[in-house]
Design brief:
160 residues, alpha+beta, Alpha-Beta Plaits, four-stranded antiparallel sheet, 8 strands
């Protein structure tokens, strides 16, 4: 029985490359000369540090541009928290990987409401879709690509 998986993953190697590019851009910009500003990658996401709020906004734009050059969907990052420590403003951006249960339920509901001849089931942080015909599965993929979801989706493990 044909099937495929719906996942939301980020290539961490590309994230590292994009972050390195953003750091180079930060060093080359004249408006950041003699300014204490930095990008840091940790297990949960990326931390931006700068002296002013508008500098943080500029750094977010630099990071988004670097992500776009590396074909990383900007919906994969979400703003988490702002903090101020001494003279530095810090902002943490979370890298979103995997499909959360609420979003998985929403995806299953979209597929079921479309009355396609496929079955969708939640399996951990991914959704598996099975059907009798390959064409039905391709319709499900097309349906989800048209739907505006707040999460970048990839379709992999397609089996006949």
């Amino acid at each position: 029985m044909p099937s495929f998986d719906i996942v939301s993953e980020i290539d961490m190697h590309e994230v590292t490359n994009a972050l390195d590019q953003a750091k180079r851009d930060l060093g080359n910009r004249w408006d950041f000369k003699n300014v204490d500003a930095s990008f840091e990658l940790d297990d949960k996401g990326i931390t931006l540090a700068a002296e002013q709020e508008f500098q943080l906004e500029q750094m977010r734009d630099m990071l988004r541009m670097a992500f776009a050059k590396r074909n990383i969907d900007p919906r994969a990052i979400s703003e988490d928290s702002d903090s101020r420590s001494g003279k530095l403003m810090k902002q943490h951006l979370v890298l979103r990987q995997g499909i959360e249960t609420d979003m998985a339920k929403k995806i299953v509901k979209i597929i079921k409401d479309a009355k396609l001849k496929v079955q969708a089931s939640i399996q951990g942080d991914k959704v598996r879709v099975t059907g009798k015909k390959r064409d039905d599965l391709q319709e499900a993929i097309a349906l989800l690509r048209e739907t505006e979801l707040d999460l970048p989706l990839q379709f992999n493990n397609f089996r006949d």
